[in-house]
Amino acid sequence: MKTTFKILATLGLVLLGQMPLQAQNKTQQKMNYVVLSKNMQQLNPILITADALAEADGMKYGKMEVVICGKTVQDIKDSPELSKLISEAQDLHVKINVCGLSLKKFGVDPNSLPSGLNVVDNGIFYSFQLQKKGYMSLTI
Asked: Cα-Cα-Cα-Cα dihedral of 47, 49, 52, 58, to 10°?
C-alpha cells in the first residue's frame, strides 16, 4: 500500500510539475487571426480591428488573414476605394485571400482581380487549415 501511494504521489508531482511549463509555452505564442467574410463591405472594419489587435497584443501579435468567399467576389473591382484598402492591409501586414471556388462559381476571372489579393483554391478549407495551426477564427 505504501509503495502504491509513493508511486502515485511521485507521478502526481511529476505531472503537476509539467503544467507550468506548458502554460509558459502557451503564453509566449504569437496570436494569429483569420476572418472568413462573405461581404466586401466588412474589409474596412476588419482592418480597423487588425490595427487594434496589433496594438492590444503588442509583441504577441502575429498575423491576420482575411478570406473573401461567396457571391461578394463579384463585387471585387479595381476601384480607388478597394485599392486604398488593399494598400492599408499591406501596411498592417494583413493578407487578403479570395476563394477560388467562389470565383469559379460566380464567373470571376482571377486575372481581373486587383493586385495585392491572393487566390486560394478553397477559402473554407484554407480557413480550417489556419485554425488547425492555432489561428483564432471569426466568420462574418
From this structure: -90
In the numeric block, which cell numbers belong to residue 55? Answer: 496594438
Going from N- to C-terminal start, the domains of the chain cover 30-139
Q: Which CATH architecture has domain 30-139?
A: 3-Layer(aba) Sandwich (3.40)
Residue 22 has pLDDT above 90, yes or no: no
Q: Are 70 and 104 in contact (CB under 8 A)?
A: no
List the grid coordinates of 67.
478570406
Q: Which amino acid is at 84?
A: K
pTM given for the model = 0.77
pLDDT of residue 5: 45
